[in-house]
Design goal:
The chain is built from no helices and 5 strands. By secondary structure, it is mainly β. The protein binds FE2/S2 (inorganic) cluster (FES).
Length: 63
């Protein structure tokens, strides 16, 4: 059930200040370059461009 009381489900994208995008909810992540197809409940995606494990954040943004 969605947060507004109906049966819609939501995917939430949160911008973490100075860090990645935190995505929670129903999602499918596809990356044909890495042969990734995953449906995680929560994922942190790099938006700084420094991760060595793109599309995921590897906390390189802290350096
Ligand atoms: S946002 Fe964390 S490594 Fe890019």
């Amino acid at each position: 059930m969605g947060t507004d009381g109906n049966n819609k489900s939501f995917t939430l994208v949160e911008v973490i200040d100075g860090g990645p995008l935190k995505i929670t909810g129903h999602l499918i992540l596809k990356d044909p370059k890495k042969d990734i197809t995953a449906s995680p409940a929560e994922v942190y995606l790099c938006r700084c461009g420094h991760s060595c494990n793109k599309p995921y954040c590897d906390k390189s943004h802290n350096c």
